């Protein structure tokens, strides 16, 4: 009950909690830095918690009608990188490194932390989960291609390491969560959603800056 109340309070004041946590991470890097090794575990738990609201049937429905998913991917990997490049050229013309950094920042896969925001604002967790998986799988292709087209930069990536991160932080926890939700007929989701929610809000924000 206490965890549920705390989670509800954080969701109500999330606009203040998030910058506060980010500020703590910046001001006290020595303390927060001790948790860097646990970031993949925290992200995996975030994926698990968010995936509890989805089932295999829900994911199948998203893939059968992929237009919303494709539109989101287009915004993430066409509109946003182009907008970043345009702003960079407008205000920092000639500074290729800075412009490349801006484009790279808006070319990376959708963040796992997005699951938290979707959960808070009652969004479609099935589309979000599908987006995370597909976007991460395509990242080794999309990121170098985007940088080459917009700024002519070549980036070497390690697809094997990225796939390991995908399996650990997204694939396995998502599969486990959907299996539990499926076989428990939604009971696991109802029992864990409020209690687990508080654990995936403040901690990732503190570690995100490190």
Model description:
This protein is an all-alpha fold. Helix content is 78%, strand content 0%. The protein is built from twelve helices and no strands. The protein has helices at 2-12, 14-27, 29-32, 39-51, 56-64, 67-91, 96-105, 114-120, 125-151, 159-183, 187-197, 202-208. The chain starts with a helix and ends with a helix. Residues 202-210 have low confidence and may be disordered.
DSSP summary: helix tally: 12
Largest sheet: none
Order of helices and strands: HHHHHHHHHHHH
Helix content: over 70%
Measured between the Cα atoms of the first and last residue, the distance is: 32 Å
Average pLDDT rating: 77
In the predicted model, the low-confidence regions spanning at least 5 consecutive residues are 202-210
Total strand segments: 0
Shape: globular
As a percent range, the share of strand residues is under 5%
Structural class: mainly alpha
Task: Please compute the radius of gyration using only Cα atoms.
Answer: 18 Å
State the gist of this model.
This protein is an all-alpha fold and about 210 residues long. It has helices spanning about 1-10, 15-25, 30, 40-50, 55-65, 65-90, 95-105, 115-120, 125-150, 160-185, 185-195, 200-210.
Show the helix and strand layout.
Elements lengths: L1 H11 L1 H14 L1 H4 L6 H13 L4 H9 L2 H25 L4 H10 L8 H7 L4 H27 L7 H25 L3 H11 L4 H7 L2
Helix pairs in contact: 1-11, 2-12, 4-10, 5-9, 6-7, 6-9, 7-9, 9-10
């Amino acid at each position: 009950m206490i965890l549920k109340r705390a989670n509800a309070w954080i969701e109500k004041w999330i606009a203040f909690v998030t910058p506060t946590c980010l500020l703590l991470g910046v001001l006290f890097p020595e303390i927060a830095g001790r948790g860097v090794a646990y970031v993949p575990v925290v992200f995996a738990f975030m994926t698990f918690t968010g995936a509890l609201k989805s089932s295999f049937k829900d994911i199948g429905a998203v893939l059968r009608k992929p237009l919303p998913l494709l539109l989101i991917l287009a915004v993430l990997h066409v509109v946003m990188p182009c907008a970043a490049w345009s702003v960079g050229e407008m205000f920092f013309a000639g500074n290729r490194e800075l412009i490349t950094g801006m484009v790279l920042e808006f070319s990376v896969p959708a963040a796992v932390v997005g699951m938290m925001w979707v959960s808070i604002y009652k969004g479609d967790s099935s589309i979000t989960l599908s987006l995370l998986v597909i976007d991460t799988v395509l990242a080794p292709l999309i990121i170098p291609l985007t940088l080459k087209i917009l700024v002519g930069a070549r980036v070497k990536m390690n697809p094997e390491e990225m796939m390991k991160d995908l399996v650990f932080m997204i694939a396995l926890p998502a599969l486990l969560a959907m299996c539990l939700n499926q076989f428990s007929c939604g009971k696991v989701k109802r029992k864990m959603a409020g209690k687990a929610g508080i654990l995936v809000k403040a901690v990732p924000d503190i570690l995100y800056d490190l």
